[in-house]
Design goal:
single chain; about 190 residues; alpha/beta; four-stranded parallel β-sheet; about 35% helix; globular
Length: about 190
């Protein structure tokens, strides 16, 4: 969604982005982006972020419904949606999110979140998949009910080795839940030549 913070960082907290005025301003930005675009196989996807109005399932659904444009979809990042109420209950957050938004999800981030309790006040850190609080059995099970070609991404890791470890952990977590990742299909790819 972005921010109007003077730091010019899209993640810097800006109180306006939590208000109806911020929501209206972002709606206009989205409509300008889409103006004249003929999206046949592509969607404009918005990722949730806790410094904006666009971060809880109910608010995301309300915004997408208000926008009313099928070209705008949802890039799910469950970690970005965690709050104090859902920190220890991420399975319920998964249930709420997929219950409201599963038909709008076009991609997902796979990462994890831990509480740095030695830091005052509250400080949460992204951590390697499996080292945090995300209920991956619930998350992967819900994702498995969506289109098999849904892209899932790991992000914010520092090396190729960390990405390889994250992918290996995800495959083990999926296997433990009776699921498996499948390779991307060839149906959307063009023949070489």
């Amino acid at each position: 969604v972005g921010s109007g913070h003077p730091a010019d960082s899209h993640i810097a907290p800006d109180p306006v982005m939590r208000t109806p005025a911020g929501q209206a301003a972002f709606r206009e930005v989205v409509l300008r982006i889409l103006d004249g675009l003929d999206l046949q196989r592509t969607s404009y996807a918005i990722e949730p972020w806790r410094t904006s109005f666009f971060w809880q399932p109910e608010d995301i659904l309300a915004f997408l419904d208000d926008l009313g444009d099928p070209r705008v979809r949802f890039h799910l990042d469950l970690v970005n949606m965690v709050d104090m109420e859902s920190f220890f209950e991420t399975a319920r957050l998964v249930e709420r999110t997929f219950g409201m938004l599963s038909d709008r999800i076009v991609a997902a981030h796979l990462k994890d979140l831990a509480w740095d309790w030695e830091h005052m006040p509250v400080k949460w850190d992204e951590v390697m998949v499996g080292d945090g609080i995300v209920n991956y059995e619930a998350y992967l099970s819900a994702l498995a009910r969506l289109d098999a070609d849904l892209p899932c991404y790991c992000e914010h890791l520092t090396s190729e080795a960390e990405y390889a470890e994250s992918f290996a952990r995800l495959h083990r977590l999926a296997e433990g839940a009776g699921l498996r990742f499948t390779p991307r299909s060839n149906r959307a790819r063009r023949p070489a030549g």
